[in-house]
Amino acid sequence: MTSFKSDFLNVLSERGFIHQCTDAEALDTLASAGPITGYIGYDATASSLHAGHLVQIMLLYWLQKTGNKPIVLMGGGTTKVGDPTFKDTQRPLLTDEQIQSNMNGIKSVFNSFLTFGDGATDAIMVNNDDWLSGFGYIEFLRTFGTHFTINRMLTFDSVKLRLEREQPMTFLEFNYMLMQAVDFRELNSTYNCVLQMGGSDQWGNIVNGVELTRRLNQKAAFGLTTPLLTTASGAKMGKTVGGAVWLNADALSPYDYWQYWRNTEDADVGKFMRLFTDLPMDEIRRLEALQGAEINEAKKILADAATRLVHGEAAAATARDTAQKAFEQGVLSADLPTVEVARAELEAGIMLAALTTKIGLTQSNGEARRLAQGGGLRVNDTAITDGNQAVTLADLNADGVIKVAQGKKKIVLVKPV
RNA sequence: GGGGGAAUGUCCCGAGCGGCAAAGGGGGCGGACUGUAAAUCCGCUGCGUAAGCUUCGCAGGUUCGAGUCCUGCUUCCCCCA
User: Which positions ≥6 away from A141 have C-beta within 8 Å?
Assistant: First the structure.
């Protein structure tokens, strides 16, 4: 397990990406002999991917970095069915328009990680709707249905757990694993793709694809999954304050993204650097060994590197600079999240609670008042305990803005226009 | 087709003799302590400045008053056929 012949598996192994692999030795042999093609599928259930998908994206990143060809499979077809894996209830079905719009949102992220093109190791993006939607029902059943037994399908955790919990699973959802298997076989036929990767929850689905490909195409096919990621204190990765840690800049600003990584728990620093950055291993080993307050330096480097991969060098530098000024020097930076408010409103005086709700720090005036009472709201660094207090133009600071903070980490600048 | 059970605070689990804005958890948020960490302790967690308003699958009914009783409907689970 420690030493492979191929760069690809060596990197994945030492960085902690590998949870299960259908046949690591054979895959290693194949990968060391020349470029291989591998893929990961992403269903279009939201308009942006989030930090939970990041591990998988990094798999493709390293696949390409080590001289192989990545395929990004957009699940335009599979999303129409909905992956039932480890969900208790069926998700609402999305319309074709929603799916299309979500796919458009998701696509852009990959440009930051992968090089697309026509070259041997250039990444390509395909949509499984292209082949899945073309099948006739009888045709599909006769071609693929004969290779799956219900007996076996019922043993997969994705199905078994749902049944054990006495939750209904529709026939529609039950077919999802067949479609995913067909994807692999299709990519194998068309692009000579030999590897499917994914999260550990996808193991069952992946194995099905591997077997179908072997059976129908008589070619080698492999599956590899990543471990389920949690933080050291057991929380799921990728969820935080305002929801998910989105990768698209319009869903979550680079500054907030940087902050997410900056707030990593001590115990996770090394693990996260291995998984979510391209920092060299020596440096990671040095940084994760830092003790006490010094590890904060490592967290900044982690945040820099992670942000750089998604949003680029410039955005990462700005985010770091902004954070540094706000937290370490107590200086305001114009790059903090800024919300414009009509000058007239401030002139008349606006209730603090109403203001925080307006700028999105709180969801209702009541919530803002309670927050204020607990000392969680600050205007220009002064805690205001009365949410009814008015905020006016008189509160503008020297830079012509009002600094409103919820807690210590969420800061918004209010600018009159 | 017959019989039995279940749906609760727009995150989850989950109590709830007819007087309840509704127990208790988890999660989340805020405060204290720190290192923008973890752990711990404390507070908040339907809307409204307020009077008050709107919540317990849906629609009706009984009652001064219903999450709680009655009727119908929807969805789900279990048993029998």
Answer: none
Q: Which residues contact residue A354 at a Cβ distance below 8 angstroms, ignoring those fewer than 6 apart? A: A365, A368
**Strand B contact with A318 (CB < 7 A):** no
Quote the ipTM score. Answer: 0.83
DSSP single-letter state for residue A361: S
DSSP state of A94: P
pLDDT tens figures, A277-294: 999 999 999 999 998 889
Active site residue A201: yes
User: Is the CB of A323 within 7 Å of strand B?
Assistant: yes
pLDDT digits (tens, 9 = 90+) for A79-91: 888 777 666 556 6
